Amino acid sequence: MEFTVTLKKNHEFRRLYSKGKSAAAPCLVCYCRKNSRGSSRIGFTVSNKIGNAVTRNRIRRRLREIYRLHEGEVKRGYDIVIVARHRAAEADYHRLEKELMKTLGRLSLLSAGREPSRDEEDPSGTD
Description:
The protein is α/β, with parallel strands linked by helices and about 130 residues long. It has one domain: 2-Layer Sandwich (Ribosomal Protein S5, domain 2), CATH 3.30.230. Helices cover about 35% and strands about 20% of the residues. The chain contains 3 helices and 5 strands, in the order βαβββαβα. A 5-stranded mixed β-sheet has the order 1-4-5-3-2, sandwiched between helices. A hairpin with a 3-residue loop joins strand 2 and strand 3. Helix 2 packs across helix 3. The longest helix is centred in the middle third of the chain and has 18 residues. The radius of gyration is 14 Å and the shape is globular. The protein starts with a strand and ends in a 21-residue tail after the last helix.
């Protein structure tokens, strides 16, 4: 990740949970808060309840790669935490990508020229 540093400390995660804005999708929840730095920081959370270590790490790797590929579209200067939900274990890469971009769009974290398209909206309406 070229423009982003990872969040590591527990108090940084807790601050985002309590004081940040959030947006939810069936597979994940995103929390964000403006920081005083010029760069963004991101953290990923996958609960022990979701599955074994292999499953949790697969989800984390997929989310990290999706963010890395779309990092140029995300506004800088924010702390972001992405929390995986139970449905993320069964979701494929493309569904995770669609939902992550949709939640980032809801939080107004995407650059001005990049808003979620109709193709990224869930046609079944099961948000």
